[in-house]
Amino acid sequence: MQTFVAVSVYLLLNGVLVCSDLRRGLLPDRFTCPLLWSGLLLCSLMTPALLADKLWGAALGYAGFALIYWAYRLLRRREGLGYGDVKFLAALGAWHGWQPLCALVFIAAALACVFTALRALCHGNLGAIKNPLPFGPFLSGAGLIVGWYAYSEQAFIVQL
């Protein structure tokens, strides 16, 4: 039952964030913060031994994307990454821990590249690449892939 509640909270908040990012290009704090805190709270209740990993995941996810955000902003004098993406990665780090953060970012970037290439091919020009691209849906997709992989790996080990 606890796992059902955790997965439901995770999927619901991820879905709301994806819809918000697609519609308005925003990942509001009123959804990223509950995603982060629910991940930490549920971890402390269900698997307290992993809480340190989740705290490090949140901190490193935030710090990594904040560094990219500020470096790009200082160099280019404009945003290249929204600050909601910074908080969203911190929330995903709170749910998944620090270990899969690099894979999560790589998968999200790969999904965004494939989507952008397909969009450019479908439109027949490269103008589609210049438009701002909401990154939240790709972070969410990467989070689902990482979560599914971790769950299937855990289920395989339990079967042994």
UniProtKB/TrEMBL annotation:
<feature type="transmembrane region" description="Helical">
    <location>
        <begin position="59"/>
        <end position="75"/>
    </location>
</feature>
<dbReference type="GO" id="GO:0006465">
    <property type="term" value="P:signal peptide processing"/>
</dbReference>
<dbReference type="GO" id="GO:0005886">
    <property type="term" value="C:plasma membrane"/>
</dbReference>
<dbReference type="InterPro" id="IPR014032">
    <property type="entry name" value="Peptidase_A24A_bac"/>
</dbReference>
<keyword id="KW-0472">Membrane</keyword>
<dbReference type="InterPro" id="IPR050882">
    <property type="entry name" value="Prepilin_peptidase/N-MTase"/>
</dbReference>
<keyword id="KW-0812">Transmembrane</keyword>
<protein>
    <submittedName>
        <fullName>Type 4 prepilin-like proteins leader peptide-processing enzyme</fullName>
    </submittedName>
</protein>
<feature type="transmembrane region" description="Helical">
    <location>
        <begin position="133"/>
        <end position="151"/>
    </location>
</feature>
<feature type="transmembrane region" description="Helical">
    <location>
        <begin position="95"/>
        <end position="121"/>
    </location>
</feature>
<dbReference type="GO" id="GO:0004190">
    <property type="term" value="F:aspartic-type endopeptidase activity"/>
</dbReference>
<dbReference type="Pfam" id="PF01478">
    <property type="entry name" value="Peptidase_A24"/>
</dbReference>
<feature type="domain" description="Prepilin type IV endopeptidase peptidase">
    <location>
        <begin position="11"/>
        <end position="116"/>
    </location>
</feature>
<comment type="similarity">
    <text>Belongs to the peptidase A24 family.</text>
</comment>
<dbReference type="InterPro" id="IPR000045">
    <property type="entry name" value="Prepilin_IV_endopep_pep"/>
</dbReference>
<keyword id="KW-1133">Transmembrane helix</keyword>
<feature type="transmembrane region" description="Helical">
    <location>
        <begin position="35"/>
        <end position="52"/>
    </location>
</feature>
